[in-house]
Amino acid sequence: MDTDKIKALQEDINNAKHIAFLTGAGVSTHSGIPDYRSKGGIYNGVAESPETILSDDTLFNRPQFFYNFVMNNMYFPDAKPNLIHKKIAEISNKKGTLITQNIDTLDTRAGNKHVIEFHGNLYNIYCTKCHKHLTYDDYAQGYLHKDCGGIIRPGIVLYGEAINPATLEKSVAAMEKSDLVIIVGTSFVVYPFAQLLAYRKPNAKVWSVNKTEIAASGINSIIDDARNVFLKINLK
Ligand SMILES: [Zn+2]
């Protein structure tokens, strides 16, 4: 554990006027939600690639396969927010915005009022035919909407679909007003999410807290489990 670096991060948090958090799966693994692409993650041992399974093509042309996959591998309705969600919520509510790739709603449930769900969320469930919003319990009964026979889907951005333009705009605005950017629990390889960094202020400080080094230059990194780091970080 790099105590000096954690102290420096704490100091940057104390001094920041507005902070943009950019987070990924590594934040939710402590809530029992598997990391997408890591060893033991949900794609491990699945014969088809995530790009194929989680696509609009599969949703409409192989709806039962899509449904089985998301129900069995992606929904964890009993998961609870952990210490990292809570610390980020506390800081964001005072002076920050969280832009997350996570689709599990744990940040909102941790009380974070400034959350941008870059890829949507699994619990925004609706019928693709009549557009009626449905609950997780409705979806858990099957993928066909009882009222109209349409295919039900989660409001997550699938491969082959674009990021919601309003979401993109809000995310860029958050980056542009932040003097500190903290990347947490993501290997930062998914585009266009990783491109958000390009919208930071020229003098913004950038930190990453991740188990592995991320591919971005000129940033301070703490190579560690995010929980170990956020245990020591506090809102002053
Ligand atoms: Zn319907």
UniProtKB/TrEMBL annotation:
According to the UniProt record, what class of enzyme is this? transferase
EC code(s) of this entry: 2.3.1.286
Asked if the record carries the keyword Metal-binding, the reply is yes
Molecular functions (GO terms) = histone deacetylase activity, NAD-dependent; metal ion binding; NAD+ binding
Pfam families, per the entry: SIR2
Keywords, ordered alphabetically: Membrane, Metal-binding, NAD, Transferase, Transmembrane, Transmembrane helix, Zinc
Q: Where does Zn(2+) bind?
A: 127, 130, 145, 148
Residues annotated as transmembrane: 180-199
Q: Which SUPFAM superfamilies match?
A: DHS-like NAD/FAD-binding domain
Q: Where is the active site?
A: 119 (proton acceptor)
According to the entry, every stretch annotated as the Deacetylase sirtuin-type domain falls at 1-236
Would you say which domain of life the source belongs to? Bacteria
Write down the PROSITE patterns for this protein, in alphabetical order: SIRTUIN
Q: Which InterPro entries match?
A: DHS-like_NAD/FAD-binding_dom, NAD-dep_sirtuin_deacylases, Sirtuin, Sirtuin_cat_small_dom_sf, Ssirtuin_cat_dom
Protein name in the entry: protein acetyllysine N-acetyltransferase
Q: Source organism lineage?
A: Bacteria, Bacillati, Bacillota, Bacilli, Lactobacillales
